Amino acid sequence: MAFEGLSERLQGAISSVGKGGKISEADLRQMMREIRLALLEADVNFKVVKKFVKQVNERALGSDVLKSLSPAQQVVKIVDEELTDLMGGEREPLNMASQPPTVMMMVGLQGAGKTTTVGKLAKYITEELGKKKPLLVAGDVYRPAAVDQLKTIGQQLGFEVYDEGTQVSPVEIAKRALDQAKLNGNQVVIIDTAGRLHVNEELMDELRNIKAAVNPDEILLTVDAMTGQDAVNVADAFNEALDITGVVITKLDGDTRGGAALSIRSIIDKPIKFTGQGEKLDALEPFYPDRMSSRILG
Ligand code: GDP
């Protein structure tokens, strides 16, 4: 399970200080060292760890943790609040256009879970947000199987898929899909885009052109939680190029250490909006920083 190691170590670090009532400054320092190591081992970005530890330490010293008879409880509260803050504080919902259709662009590297997430998101938006007739757009024309994959997902969910095969520019496909959606009353248009194995300028140029052509309300980046700090670097690059509006962290059902989920918000200052929790099309969860923090702290 994700965060397992981190959970264990954080809980261990915190409970070790609280056993005999009052704690000393040395106990606190030792605990902070352990928290720092726990985060580094969970593959959290080192700058993020440094800032986090400093913040928790200052708050612990500034409050009456050292005088308290239940220091562990107070530290848990501080760590909980700081972890929540680190992951963005409040839940950030999807941006919806005031005039439909709402246009969303899904971007990310190949294999991150883009195409699957297009389907998951369409299902979520219809079932949870009550929007009707999502149109899924097959804009990943470089991976031939991607068009068929999206069609299959559309069929499974009973949603319309717009495709023009693989010989047409994705910018044209996106434009025409949007025109069609306006004519047919699709309330949401979700555009799948091409990925690559690595970030490159050609890809970013194409994505920038699609963005300029359809002016999306959301540009959601899918990153694979299992890739750890690479996911953070990828997010940074996509955000630089496209000014994304949010992140979907996929494969959080795997045994990832969780570093990406804990670092991304702080590094790129864009919200995590959802997490992917499995291959099935209902395995998408809205991201709540406070719930994730509670889960980590057990
Ligand atoms: P794309 O190349 O970015 O479009 O990636 P795909 O949507 O084809 O996904 C790549 C693989 O990851 C597929 O086998 C998906 O079933 C799988 N996948 C996507 N999201 C998740 C997730 O949240 N959890 C798990 N376990 N697998 C996922």
From TrEMBL:
GO cellular component: signal recognition particle
Subcellular localization: Cytoplasm
Origin: domain of life: Bacteria
Residues reported in the UniProt entry to bind GTP: 108-115, 192-196, 250-253
AAA+ ATPase domain residues: 100-279
EC identifiers of the protein: 3.6.5.4
Record's protein name: Signal recognition particle protein
Organism this protein belongs to: Eremococcus coleocola ACS-139-V-Col8
Organism classification: Bacteria, Bacillati, Bacillota, Bacilli, Lactobacillales
Residues of the whole record sequence present: 1 to 298 of 489
